[in-house]
Design brief:
InterPro entries: AAA+_ATPase, AAA_lid_NorR, CheY-like_superfamily, Homeodomain-like_sf, P-loop_NTPase, Sig_transdc_resp-reg_receiver, Sigma_54_int, Sigma_54_int_dom_ATP-bd_1. This protein has 450 residues and is an alpha/beta fold. It is built from 18 helices and 20 strands. The protein folds into four domains: 4-117, Rossmann fold (3-Layer(aba) Sandwich), CATH 3.40.50; 143-308, Rossmann fold; 312-388, Helicase, Ruva Protein, domain 3 (Orthogonal Bundle), CATH 1.10.8; 405-445. The radius of gyration is 28 Å and the shape is elongated.
């Protein structure tokens, strides 16, 4: 979509000329002549740039400048230039202060520079995210197994399209890294990849993070805040653990996907959403939608294309190569000269990896530390679920019937909570999952008193 430019000028001839020039520059320009018209326009639109005459019949731009610059860069035009006004304008946040008559070339240059600067400011976090993704992305993609090859093929197929993607897989299997790979394979790769954790915030806070809020929308909202949908403009919005969002947020998200329009919390104007939706879950959304726990229409919208991320136990042939990669990339500031012994590799192959690649990474990092100055990593340096010596240990849970997967998970979590005296951070480390996932599972299985 072409950037929007609002031209505020009461000289009809000059207003028309500026608007035509903006159109030639490939911009979506709207011209108004009074501050009343400005307020009416801004009530329903958000321009990326404002070009304003300082003095109109019903007001002075310098007085309104502090509010205007909060949303976009402002270029001021005046026929009565003075050093004092120029200094006041720049202090108030104006991007540029030009004295009429302004040459078309000068205005075009300043306009482009203002839009480029605004984009750079919005994107400063994006550069760091891409660097982090470059370092982390390979952790999942290392390996030559058939299961991993199928995932790679799916990424290659769907990446260049613009359809919604649902990524399904166990915790720690690399769902976010797959989402980043989909983004990198798309035409949106040079724009933002914005991850959203759907299970850490309460409903209202989550809405505020996702959609943004207007000033006064709720207690403590002392200023307007842009949401993550706006932060993902032109890029990819990654909704991690989408199965955890509340019904009210599901309805609003469905509206965004169906119409491409959303409103900030407490807002009245429709905003355009230009972000590809990639969602991930470790839950069975199809079953949840059939049981009424997740909107079926939202599930169908999200699952235009589904990528299954294989658990590590289904691609054990990748473990040796993954370990080599993890050792080589451990502590980038110095080279780690370590090698895995055959006995240690057999121990790794024998383990079922409930925490998947994330757990493997933790085990390898601990082994590097525990092996000290020894070049070889042996079974005695491996720690599975907090146990050393290559002993995978074992726990026993019993049922008087054939348990479901949910019952097994709940029983094992209850056992670990009891074993760790309710210390949830310790349970998270043992299971090699995040602490937020432990809190979520405790709520799901009703184990708050464990």
């Amino acid at each position: 979509m072409a950037p929007r430019v609002l031209v505020i000028e009461d000289d009809r001839v000059l207003s028309r000329l500026i608007k035509e020039q903006m159109t030639r520059l490939g911009l979506d320009a709207t011209a108004v002549a009074t501050w009343a018209e400005v307020e009416a326009y801004l009530a329903g639109h958000e321009p990326q740039l404002i070009i304003a005459d300082v003095r109109l019949g019903d007001g002075d731009a310098l007085e309104r400048l502090p509010d205007l610059v909060k949303g976009q860069p402002v270029i001021l035009l005046t026929a009565y230039g003075s050093v004092r006004d120029a200094v006041a304008a720049m202090k108030a946040g104006a991007y540029e202060y030009l004295v009429k008559p302004v040459s078309p070339d000068e205005l075009a240059l300043v306009t482009r520079r203002a839009l480029d600067t605004a984009t750079l400011r919005r994107d400063h976090r994006f550069c760091r995210q891409r660097l982090e993704a470059t370092e982390a992305k390979a952790d999942f993609m290392v390996g030559q197994s058939a299961a991993l090859a199928r995932t790679r093929e799916a990424i290659v197929m769907v990446g260049p399209t613009d359809v919604n993607v649902l990524i399904q897989g166990e915790s720690g299997s690399g769902k976010e890294l797959v989402a980043r790979a989909v983004h990198e394979a798309s035409e949106r790769a040079q724009r933002h990849f914005v991850p959203v954790d759907c299970c850490t915030l309460q409903e209202k806070l989550f809405e505020s993070e996702l959609f943004g809020h207007e000033r006064g929308a709720f207690t403590g909202a002392d200023r307007m805040k842009r949401g993550l949908i706006e932060g993902a403009e032109g890029g990819t919005l990654f909704l991690d653990e989408i199965g955890e969002i509340d019904a009210a947020v599901q309805a609003k998200l469905l509206r965004v996907i169906e119409t491409g329009v959303f409103r900030r919390l407490g807002g009245t104007k429709d905003l355009q959403a230009n972000a590809r939706i990639v969602a991930a879950t470790n839950r069975d959304l199809a079953a949840m939608s059939e049981a009424g726990g997740f909107r079926a229409d939202l599930f169908y919208r999200l699952s235009t294309f589904v990528i299954q991320v294989p658990p590590l136990r289904e691609r054990r042939e990748d473990i040796a190569q993954l370990v080599e990669h993890l050792i080589a990339h451990h502590n980038f500031s110095r080279r780690i000269d370590k090698a895995l012994s055959a006995a240690a590799l057999r121990s790794l192959h024998a383990y079922d990896w409930p925490g998947n690649v994330r757990e493997l990474k933790n085990v390898v990092e601990r082994a590097i530390i525990l092996s000290g100055t020894s070049r070889s990593i042996g079974p005695e340096h491996l720690a599975f679920g907090g146990r050393r010596g290559g002993d995978t240990g074992g726990v026993t849970v019993s049922f008087d019937h054939d348990p479901t997967l949910e019952e097994l998970q709940a029983a094992y979590l209850r056992l670990q909570l009891q074993k760790q005296s309710g210390r949830r951070a310790k349970v998270a480390r043992v299971l090699a999952v995040s602490e937020r996932n432990i809190y979520r599972l405790i709520r799901r299985y009703g184990l708050a008193e464990s």
